[in-house]
Amino acid sequence: MKDVSSWLGLIAGVALLTSAAAGQAQTLSPQGAITATGVVNVGLKATTVFDSVCEVVFQGVADASGITLTSATGSQVSGPIDCTGDGGGIVEGWVFPIRANVTPDRQLRFENIGFSMRFGDCQNPNVVAAWDSADSRIDVTADKTFCRLSGVLTVSPATIIN
Known about the structure:
Radius of gyration: 20 Å
CATH topology: Porin
Structural class: mainly beta
Number of strands: 11
CATH architecture: Beta Barrel
Distance between the termini: 42 Å
Order of helices and strands: HEEEEEEEEEEE
Helix content: 10-25%
Number of helices: 1
Mean pLDDT: 81
Strand content: over 45%
Largest sheet: 8 strands, antiparallel, barrel
CATH class: Mainly Beta
């Protein structure tokens, strides 16, 4: 009987350690200045008339708990939306700051991601984006409001979620 209770104690200890490790917060590294570069598709959810493709470079900062994007430059690849964000088109600019927090399952949750349009801000709250540590890449799709936004951004320097 002593052998059974010893094994049960060992199993309980391993289970406790495993659950404690699973509950640990994930962190982003390295920390400091970053750029996130890629192609983003923007448009309105109800129609494809305004669908546009933008090349964009975001600047921001990585900290242990996530990324804060603070500015961007862009260029229009296709479509009627001016991706430069200089106020010359329907899109007047990205709404900053854009904050993304690391989730326990090694993804990023954007608190709010969107752009300002002439008829109002087009923001999507609580958007979970897939994170690829091997390629330091964010794959985001946001369509919770009247706007759509999707794309893949590569973060530099190479960044991982631990």
